[in-house]
What does this fold into?
Amino acid sequence: MELKLLNAQGQASSNVAAPDTIFGRDYNEALIHQIVVAYQANARSGNRKQKDREEVSHTTKKPWRQKGTGRARAGMSSSPIWRGGGRAFPNSPDENFSHKVNKKMYRAGLCSILSQLARDDRLSVIEELSLEAPKTKLLAQKLKSMGLDSVLVITDSLDENLMLASRNLPNVLVCEPRHADPLSLVFYKKVLITKPALAKIEEMLA
It folds into this structure.
């Protein structure tokens, strides 16, 4: 598999050899969907809380007598079928939303995503990406000159200037290979990988 090597102007200057075992996989839509959904589910936090009939502030007095009124039987106003009553099956903060994905499946899904990105010409390699100062304007100008507006940049190590400059750009994310998640790979229009980061990805997913 050959990946495009971009120069500072965003033009393909040459090609970089990449293993077919990582960048030449078939597109497995079901597996990609599974790992993306699992990633989103595992990022959820249990912060919802609802009260059951024991916790709502209501009296336990019987609203009316059992028989003779013509109305339905009622024991207390905290019943779930009453307005203002407790929930029958309330949400709790310790609710677990996590999905389990095996390491082998996760790596295969990442390889399938990377392979499809390479086929769609959405994945490119660059020698390095660095800035002289932590200025958002500098990074925005550099990406604009390369024709990139929505891009995921994967570097072998986080450069402080690059990281600080990218924080205010909503369509730019800079991360290390071990933090390249399936959702980000799918979300951004382009993926830019430095050559040292490409070697790390090959080592991780080999």
